[in-house]
Amino acid sequence: MNIKSTKFIGSFNNLDQCPKTNFKEFAFIGRSNVGKSSLINFLTQKKDLAKVSNTPGKTQSINFFLINESWHLIDLPGYGFAKRSRSLREDWEKMMQRFFLKREQLHCVMQLIDSRIPPQTKDLDHVNWLGENNVPFVLIFTKVDKKERAVCLKNIQLFKNELLKSWEELPPSFLTSSEEKVGREEVMDFLANEL
Ligand code: GTP
Ligand code: MG
Fold this sequence. Notes:
Elements: E1 6-12, E2 24-29, H1 36-44, E3 62-67, E4 71-75, H2 86-102, E5 106-114, H3 121-132, E6 137-142, H4 149-164, E7 173-175, H5 184-194
Parallel strand pairs: 2-4, 2-5, 5-6, 6-7
Antiparallel strand pairs: 1-3, 3-4
């Protein structure tokens, strides 16, 4: 898929505020600092479509982008941000669960997993929740940089093995490095096929 145009539509704090259009939607989610904004910029080939930061928890609202005048890319707030209070985290969880379960235009969740670290309970819990609630999703492993490839591949296998303890089949998965510009074509082909 070629990116011909990208347009920032807006930031919304909950499901009811989100645009009432019929564009197919792909929502990117992952733990805070997983490399979500970097991946969105890499995929869309826009340097600062999504804000990249070293401060975890930068994305706090639901950000909508219209791509090629035909589909929505959604940047969701990261989960597992320790510096947020418990009540804020619970609010976040309720807001997101409602979004995943009720947003009819949502076609697929792009679940990001940091390949540089071993399987994390928060990620496994999130993926299992999506599966249990029949929310369609794919796995995108991030930060699969060349110099750490062996470790990353091992972590990816461990993550899949954890999931295979409860699931017979795994969804499609993609290996990416936004820093080294790896894996873009595979993800874009997947998106193009789903549109
Ligand atoms: P929040 O919005 O703050 O939750 O973070 P995010 O998931 O959007 O992550 P972001 O793209 O801001 O990147 C977080 C950090 O990871 C930054 O320091 C990036 O430079 C770094 N990063 C992103 N992608 C890669 C990658 O492919 N390889 C490496 N080594 N670092 C990366
Ligand atoms: Mg971000």
